[in-house]
Amino acid sequence: MSHPRASSSGTRVLSALRASAVVSAYCLVVVAGLAVVWWLLGWMWVAVLPVCLALLVSTLVWPLARFLRRHGWPPLLVAAVVTAGTVLLVAGLVVVVVLPVAGQATEVATGVSSGVDTVRQWLRGPPFNLGSDQLGSAVDAAIGQLQSSTGEILGTVLSGVGVLGTGLVTIAMAVVLTFFMLKDGPAFLPWLGRQLGGRAGPHVAELGRRCYDALGAFMRSQALVGLADAVGIAIGLLVVGVPLVLPLAVLTFLGAFVPVVGAFVAGAVAVLIALVSNGLTDALIVLGVIVLVQQLEGNVWQPILQGRSLRLHPAIVLLAVVVGGNRAGVVGALLAVPVAAVVAVFWRYGREQLSRSSGPSGRDTAGEAEETDDA
Q1: Can you give the pLDDT at residue 80?
Q2: Which residues contact 139 (CB under 8 A, 6 or more apart)?
Q3: Calpha distance 230→234 (Å, rounded)
Q4: 196: CB partners within 8 A, 6+ apart
Q5: Which residues of 179-191 are buried (b: 16+ CB within 10 A; e: fewer)?
Q6: Which sequence ranges are marked TM in the entry (predicted)?
């Protein structure tokens, strides 16, 4: 005769296993669905990338477009003026970066050559004690390897030309899509809600609104943070006397749109230019200025400007940038945090709906969920 307590314990175990199996099955279905979505995104990436870029740009400039709309400008004129102004601004930033670098290319090249000579002299001394013949042989071997790889290098260059052509087409499509988003964007979500209808329509429209607001908060806060970084680093470079101050400041501003990694890359470029042009002492001073500015960004500017609008932990931001960069290079690193912010919006909205449907008081339970997220 079995003991009642043992029978009850076995029943609870079986119930727990059954519940775990059901949850596991749901998770497998979700993972399979995400895999299909990932495959579709990869298959349609040529069309998806311009849409993503247009979304980021339109959320950044939407406050200006909204201001003009509220002052009586027609939507078509607003979209045309804001889009053209954005294109001219970006083109101006590119010119600001490229022309000074090209104008001082000889100076930088001379500095690099001097740096190579310094390294060569260092290698000739202790503890390496490499003679001129050994260094010459190493240089000859490097030149021979370069000559033998000419075909591969040429193929890479031609491939790069193809990539450049594809990039120009992507940029052109993004500009056109930005125009239409600024012109017709406010009517899209209500239209989509009406098309879906039923219970899904209001949820889709609300999710779209929240995602757009999250993207706008990210882009505008990163722009302000990047501007503060660029001004701080430019002042430091001017005081030290490092060349190419304006291009380095612009690079710092653009790097702010790739959190963590962008600031590191821009800082490394600034230190390298200081090392080549001014020497080790000024390079260390520039490194100190960059570290100071980055500390101000992380502890002062970003919390004030970005606040808790995205509510993403710094570890999640770093992991998103690393994964995005590993999967899709610079573009992946650029889109990683906006995608993470959108995923967080979906997660919070789902929790909010579950809390409202299961809690005794929908409003209080949802508020508790929001407080938990904020903590």
Answers
A1: 93
A2: none
A3: 6
A4: 204
A5: bebbbebeeebee
A6: 21-41, 47-65, 77-102, 157-182, 224-246, 252-276, 316-347
The gap from C-alpha 294 to its chain's centroid, in whole angstroms, comes to 17
Name the one residue in this structure whose structure tokens are 């003026």: 81
CA distances from 349 to 297, 320, 342 (A): 30, 20, 11
Residue 320: partners with Cβ closer than 8 Å, 6 or more residues away: 336, 337, 339, 340
Amino acid 27 reads C
Closest CA to 187 of 217, 209, 218: 209
Q: List the one residue out of 279, 238, 269 whose CA is nearest residue 246.
A: 238
Amino acid identity for residue 77 in this structure: L
Amino acid present at 106: T
What the block records as the tokens of 180 is 């239409």
pLDDT at 368: 43
Joined together, the tokens standing for residue 108 give 């930088």
> Are the beta carbons of 286 and 271 closer than 8 angstroms?
yes
pLDDT tens per residue across all 375 residues of the chain: 555 555 666 677 777 788 888 888 888 888 888 788 878 877 887 888 888 888 888 888 888 998 999 988 998 999 999 999 999 988 887 777 666 666 665 655 555 555 556 556 666 666 555 555 555 565 556 545 544 544 454 454 444 444 455 677 888 888 998 998 888 877 777 777 777 767 777 777 788 888 888 888 888 888 888 888 888 888 988 988 887 788 888 888 877 777 666 777 788 888 878 877 777 788 888 889 888 887 777 666 666 655 555 667 767 777 777 787 777 776 777 777 788 888 888 888 888 877 776 655 444 444 444 444 443
H-assigned helices in the chain = 4-43, 45-70, 75-103, 105-124, 132-148, 150-196, 200-240, 245-255, 261-278, 280-296, 302-305, 314-358, 362-374
Both tokens of 131, joined, read: 């003679």
Residues 232, 340, 324: CA angle, nearest 5 degrees: 80
What residue has token string 């954005």? 86
């963590």: which residue's tokens? 260
Name the residue with tokens 């993503």. Answer: 52
Helical segments of 241-313, H only: 245-255, 261-278, 280-296, 302-305
**Coil, strand or helix at 205:** helix
